[in-house]
UniProtKB/TrEMBL annotation:
Keywords: Membrane, Transmembrane, Transmembrane helix. The chain crosses the membrane at residues 16-38, 58-77, 84-102, 108-128. This is Uncharacterized protein. It comes from uncultured Rubrobacteraceae bacterium.
């Protein structure tokens, strides 16, 4: 049987690397799509809830920067600070999503759900292994749902032939 302390330390290390990867991925995704997260842009906002007003310039940029700072903090902080930073980032994520449905990108809500697991871990509500397993489940469920969405007639009749067309064109008759 292995050393339980060593296993626990490895799980803590995995979670630390996961926090860094999650923070880097979310920050980079948002930096690659900055116009999506601010109110001043060429296409209109489509709010989920009209009670959430669009933020004027420069408040929208300030909130965008605050969100990036909070997520970065989740990646580098330790202890209970992770929980509070993640909770505040999640509150801003909900605000962003309520302000515009275009912001509900799969990568964004996947990272948000994973932030929720880190929040619970940071507050001591769940253990290291539970946080890792929750994040594993979120990733697996996202891929499963993505695959399930492709199991429709439109995909098989339109997209699939186009997708494999270059391969089947090279096959002998």
């Amino acid at each position: 049987m292995g050393d339980p302390d060593r296993t626990w330390r490895e799980d803590v290390s995995r979670l630390a690397w996961l926090r860094l990867a999650l923070a880097a991925g979310l920050v980079m995704g948002m930096l690659l799509s900055p116009n999506l997260w601010v109110s001043a842009r060429s296409y209109p906002l489509t709010p989920l809830w009209d009670a959430v007003p669009p933020l004027p310039y420069p408040a929208d940029y300030a909130l965008f920067g605050l969100f990036l700072a909070l997520v970065t903090g989740v990646g580098v902080a330790r202890g209970r600070a992770v929980g509070w930073l993640a909770a505040t980032a999640l509150a801003l994520a909900v605000f962003f999503a309520l302000g515009d449905t275009s912001r509900l990108q799969p990568w964004f809500y996947q990272y948000s759900f994973m932030l929720m697991a880190l929040c619970l871990f940071g507050w001591g509500r769940i253990g290291v292994l539970d946080a890792l397993n929750a994040c594993r489940l979120i990733v697996a469920a996202t891929y499963f749902w993505s695959g399930l969405q492709k199991a429709n007639m439109g995909f098989f009749h339109s997209l699939y032939p186009w997708l494999v067309g270059p391969l089947t064109a090279r096959l002998p008759d």
